[in-house]
Structure formats: C-alpha cells, structure tokens
Design a protein that fits this description.
By secondary structure, this protein is an alpha/beta fold. It has helices spanning 26-35, 58-62, 76-84, 86-91, 96-100, 104-107, 126-135, 173-182, 187-195, 250-253; strands at 5-8, 16-19, 44-47, 70-72, 117-118, 123-124, 141-144, 151-153, 218-221, 230-232, 235-237, 258-262, 267-271, 279-282. It has a single domain (5-75, 138-282), classed as Purple Acid Phosphatase, chain A, domain 2 (4-Layer Sandwich). Helices cover 25% and strands 18% of the residues. The strands form 3 sheets. The chain has a 6-stranded mixed β-sheet with strand order 1-7-8-9-11-10, with helices on one face. The protein has a 6-stranded mixed β-sheet with strand order 4-3-2-12-13-14. Strands 5-6 form a two-stranded antiparallel ribbon. The longest helix has 10 residues, at 26-35. It is globular. The two termini are 33 Å apart.
C-alpha cells in the first residue's frame, strides 16, 4: 500500500455515500446507485473494503478502483489476496494447484481466481493482473472532511488492544492525525483495522455512551455483518452480508444484502438478491 492514510476534502458539489463489504456483489451495487440517482460527476462512493471473494463478480468490483468517484480502504480479504500473490508478483510465475490446498485466501472465498489462471503459462490473465495492481494502492484509513463534517472509512475497528485499561476504548481523531503526519500505524492497530470484531460483538451494548465515542468522528466500517447497520462508539458498521443474499438457502439469506449509506442524510438502503424491493432506514 503506497499510502497508509489518505485525506480527502469535504464534498461541496454533491453527496457522499459509503457501501458495505461488496464481496463480489457488483450487480447489487448497480441497483443501489440507480436507486439514489448517483451522479458520477458530483457524488463520491467510499468502500469499507472486502471488494472481493465469496460473491459472483469479484473482478468487476476490483475495477471500481479505477473510477475517480470510487475510493476504498483495504479489507482483510484484499490483504489475504496480496499475501497469496506476493511470490507471483516477485517471480511472475504461479502454480495455483500447489497453493490452493489449506490456504487462508482460498479457505475464505479466494477460489474465484482460478478462472483467470493460465495453467500453460503458469500466470494470471492480463485482465486479472490489472485488478491485482489496483490492490497495491489501497490505504487502511480514509479521512474525509474536517471539523463537524469529518468522517472516517476503515475496514474493521479502531479498537484499542488494551481497551479495558484505557481512558477510551477506541483510538481518537488525534491519534489518526498523528499517524497521518508520521505515515505510520502501529502494527497491532493495523491488525485490528483489518480483523477485529470486538466492538460489534455486543459487549459494548450496555456502555453508558454505547453509540458515541467523544473525540472520534463518525467512522464507517464493515467486516462484522448483521441484518442492518449497527452503531457502536462512533463506528457505523455497514456490512449487512451482501454475499449471503446470493445463497441458494433462501431462509438463511433472506435477511441480508448490500447496504449503501447516505452520509449527509444518515439514511441507508439495502438491496438483496432475494428481494425486488429495497429496504430503507435511518439513524
């Protein structure tokens, strides 16, 4: 990743939206963007990461990174993908069959890459290589706007590892600003930004200020899916299990889908492969 934290100005021309974990559900995003009349000349779309794996259109989702109106942070699935392809990026050759067995990336939905593998040349297709290159520039944190209009986009959580003994359970704006000036994030923080599910586990539901963490601007995240968006200590989790809605088990998938969050209006829209209608809600 070229830049660990990126800052962007407030959008004064159009609207900002945040989308939950896409996991290859490109067609659901199309439905949602049409619903809100997304203007690619003025509006911006931010992603909480996990563009790939599990769903049907992973490479299409990767190519969104080429669009000027789309920005995404790195998720744990992008991180696993980059780790898997590290030898390939160094040596330009790859034997997928030798790597697939008991591999973390494949075990978590990475088998879709096999359709882009050229066995006779032991390499990936040029189309796939184009998508792989796009992963290299994904930051861990996006900081958008300033003051009361500031918000963040991350993948998992800004939880402190020793939150039980700290004054605040989460890291604050001041910490993010310090990391930005240094362009360095402590390794344990980076790990939690990709993998942690502490905040969304329910253990903070009885916290006296369960929804707001003073000193931390609204922070959009994903990684921990639920049937509708959740808010805990200034984190708004917009992962609502998009890939689950493509399951053939209708009973299991009925409550899930892809969520698009309108930042300015605090309103969310959820589309599913199992329903024609789009569900709406707001905070």
């Amino acid at each position: 990743m070229a830049t660990i934290i990126k800052r962007l100005p407030e959008n004064k021309q159009g609207k900002d939206y945040v989308v939950g974990d896409l996991h290859g559900c490109f067609s659901l995003l199309d439905v949602l963007l049409a619903k809100v009349h997304f203007d690619k000349q003025k509006d911006r779309l931010f992603s909480v990461g996990d563009l790939i794996d599990r769903g049907p259109e992973s490479l299409h989702c990767l190519f969104l990174l080429e669009e000027p109106w789309f920005m995404a942070v790195c998720g744990n699935h992008e991180s696993m993908c980059l780790d898997f392809f590290l030898p390939y990026r160094v040596n330009d050759t790859l034997k997928v069959s030798d790597c697939a067995s008991s591999n973390l990336f494949f075990d978590n939905g990475g088998a879709w890459i096999e359709q882009y593998y050229q066995a006779n040349r032991q390499c990936m297709t040029p189309e796939f290589n184009r998508g792989l290159d796009l992963l290299l520039d994904m930051p861990l944190i996006l900081v958008v706007g300033e003051g009361e209009n500031r918000f963040h986009v991350i993948h998992a959580e800004l939880i402190r590892s020793q939150y039980n003994f700290a004054k605040t359970a989460t890291w604050l704006n001041s910490d993010i600003d310090r990391w930005f000036s240094e362009q360095r994030i402590p390794s344990i923080v980076s790990e939690n930004l990709l993998w942690s599910r502490t905040l969304m586990s329910g253990r903070f539901s009885k916290h006296p200020n369960a929804t707001i963490q003073p000193g931390l601007s609204t922070t959009f995240c994903g990684h921990s899916y639920a049937p509708k968006p959740q808010k805990v200590l200034s984190h708004i989790c917009v992962d609502t299990g998009a890939f689950l809605s493509s399951s053939e088990d209708i009973q299991e998938s009925a409550d899930f889908g892809l969520t698009l969050f309108d930042v300015q209006a605090s309103r969310w829209y959820l589309a599913s492969y199992q329903r024609h209608e789009i569900i709406q809600g707001e905070f």
